[in-house]
Amino acid sequence: MPGGFSLPSWRPTLPPSAAWDTHRACWWLMLPEPPGQEGIGARLKQRLQEAGQRVILLTPGPRLAQFGEHHWSLQPAEATDYDLLLRLLLPQGLAPDRVLHLWSLLPPPPPGELEASFEPAHERGFQSLLFLLQALGRQEPRPVSLVVLTHRMQALGEETPCPERATVLGPVRAASHESPHLACRAVDVNLPAPGSWQEARLVDWLLSECAEASSGEDVVYRGQQRHVRAFSPIELPPASARVPGPLSPRERGVYLVLGGFGTLGSSHAEALARHVRARLVLVSRSLMPERVHWDDWLANHDASDPLSRRIRQVRALEALGSEVRVISADVGDRDQLRTAIEETLAHFGALHGVVFCVGSVNPSLSRSLADLTPEDVRVLFQSRVHGLYALEEVLRDRPLDFCLLASSLVAVRGRGASAAYSAAMNFMDAFVLRQAQRSPVPWVSVDWDGWTSDADVLPSTVAPLGSRPITAAEGAELFTDVLSLGGVNRVAVTPRDPFSPATPQPPPRPPEHNTPRAEPAASDPSAARRASRPPLETAYVAPRDAVEESIAKVWESMLGITGVGIYDNFFELGGDWRTGMTVMTQVREKTGVPLPPVSLQEGPTVELLARRLRAASEGLPDTSFDRPLVPSSAVKPSGEDD
Fold first, then answer.
1. Which of 563, 570, 622 has the alpha carbon at shortest distance from 593?
2. DSSP letter, residue 304
3. CB 247 within 8 A of CB 486
4. DSSP string covering 407-447, please?
5. 3-state secondary structure of 228
6. pLDDT at 571
7. For the residues 48-58, what does the mean pLDDT come to?
8. Of 239, 426, 607, 634, whose CB is crowded by the most CB atoms within 10 A?
9. Which residues pair with 54 in a beta bridge?
């Protein structure tokens, strides 16, 4: 397969040059505490006021309260505070044009209190951003530029990253793709001494970042140098020329696969069985029948039964020469996880490596920012965040060959999955980098592109990140390739290179003071030359009714093509997540039926969207995805369990 491996790095760039004080704008400064005489918050406020900008200070507090003409406090984890604040400030012309979010400027947590520091960082970081962006989304769309500032969240060189703050990248990524009127960027700094010339220079750079913040880049400042995220492709030597490395699995080694029945866990287990006849422990939350009852179970349940599939999977692994043990445990529960490891040691007498592929597959994986709930976040964080804390604790001081985590390219691109999922993946990647500095055991994070569990999915099927999904068979070989890498803590894997720069978005330009914003001109489809429908494996079928015709015309207008058929895949036609958000807005305006933005990803054809629109308009149960053209479970972000 045309698989690609890339290593993350940081590329030096020039500082921003946007003139942040050209137009008078309303700046919201979200400061971790009321600004005193010193500190970067006080310096930002001073510079803005000296330039005649309108400044609103927002600080965390026990309730929504006003402390001065332009100073408010609100509860970071209370969604209604953000809505109420906007309703209070909008009539005064104080809705934000530019936002500097500094609530994540927290001191590094003590080494022994890392997990305890997660919840405060989560409330002031992820939750505050989620509720702010949701509140802004409920208002009339207006250009807003947002910069999220963190202190030593990222790691350059031998620095230690802070996973507890890395979750802020989830809302930043999601907003960048879902809301064309929002430009979001994360900027990580090492705060200079208060009052220093270095602080003064950094303040001007941050204001320029906010003024020109096109979405899509992670930015890091160290010293006087600006860096952006980059990925360097690597080529592996042929399999025949490889020598065993530190991650190479042992013949008949003992490996614990957490999430062993999920798409990735199954594929990784097969690779270990096929190449080294590994002794495997598959861990899953679901209970399995006792082995003595397996034949009876298979005789009385059809082939699609989930437990029947698992029984056959175990037997297939054993047919490859593996010895397999199945354990039921919740990875987020320390006691259950510790018991699973103790049972492994008692049964096999050793443990050589751990593969972490856990996480529930549910609709919240791809839920839009507007629809994401705190319960969605809790579910997604249970195994991927708290499960990692538990895993580190129970493995501490235990000699292993490796501990490998299945993360996702969503952590990089953020397209096609929810803010919570992206946040969890960024947490996992940062957690591994921290562990690499704290533990002699090699910890490795693998950022996978989308996978498919369906062997019959056509190669043209589009994965969440826009490339062809990885099949289970391909993934097994790629997993083996990853284990041939030595001295790598993080690697990205995709069927094709996804790291070409995204099309830059023009920065939001705030209106000048007392100057009404010009409404965008209505698009005239006939004014632009359109290309013909690209060659697809799907045969062209014309729209059959007014609903399908309306959707097809919106697609043609947005994609600049003619001849959209009802079975054409939106992403194969050249669409992306950002364009899709605009498409769903126009579909809602034309039909008057509100559908969640994720509908386009769940059913990326005119025919499927039309079915969902008809059901919603008639108040009927939505059955449009009961039997989709591409099963909703077929293409998944990586990291899922059962």
1. 622
2. T
3. yes
4. EETHHHH-TTS-HHHHHHHHHHHHHHHHHHHH-SSPEEEEE
5. strand
6. 77
7. 96
8. 426
9. 26
Answer for the pair 277, 251: CB distance below 8 angstroms, yes or no: yes
- Residues 6 or more apart whose Cβ sits within 8 Å of residue 319: none
Strands 225-234 and 218-222: antiparallel
Look-up of token digits 């899709």: 580
| Burial profile 371-395: b = 16 or more Cβ within 10 angstroms, e = fewer | ebeeebbebbbbbbbbbbbbbbebb
For residue 205, pLDDT over 70 is answered with yes
Per residue, what are the HEC states of 130-181? HHHHHHHHCCCCCCEEEEEEEECCCCCCCCCCCHHHHCCHHHHHHHHHHCCC
In the chain, the percentage of residues whose pLDDT exceeds 90 is 49
Tokens at residue 492, please?
A: 């990205």
Distances (CA, A) of 61 to 72, 77, 78, 103: 9, 10, 11, 12
- Least confident piece of the model among 40-49, 178-187, 511-520, 553-562: 511-520
Per-residue pLDDT tens for 113-138?
888 899 999 999 999 999 999 999 88
Whole-angstrom distance, CA of residue 287 vs CA of residue 326: 9
Query: Residues 600, 580: contact at Cβ < 8 Å?
Result: yes
Share of the chain above pLDDT 70, in %: 84
281, containing H or E segment: strand 279-284
Rounded to an integer, what distance in angstroms lies between the CA atom of residue 423 and that of residue 380?
Answer: 9
pLDDT tens for each residue of 481-528: 999 987 889 999 976 544 443 333 344 444 444 443 333 334 444 434
- Count the helix, strand and coil residues of the chain and give each as a percent rounded to the nearest 5: 40, 20, 45
Q: Which amino acid is at 300?
A: N
- How far is it, in rounded angstroms, from Cα 267 to Cα 265? 5
Question: Alpha-carbon distance 475 to 456, whole Å?
Answer: 15
* pLDDT tens sequence across 215-271: 667 899 998 999 999 888 888 888 777 878 888 999 999 999 999 998 899 999 999
pTM above 0.85, yes or no: no
Give the Cα separation of 358 and 351 in Å (integer): 19
Average pLDDT over residues 454-459: 41
Residue 254 corresponds to which tokens in the numbers above? 């003992």
Least confident of 338-342, 388-392, 407-411: 407-411
Q: Three-state DSSP class for 11? A: strand
CB 422 within 8 A of CB 170: yes
**Distance separating alpha carbons of residues 378 and 325, to the nearest angstrom:** 30
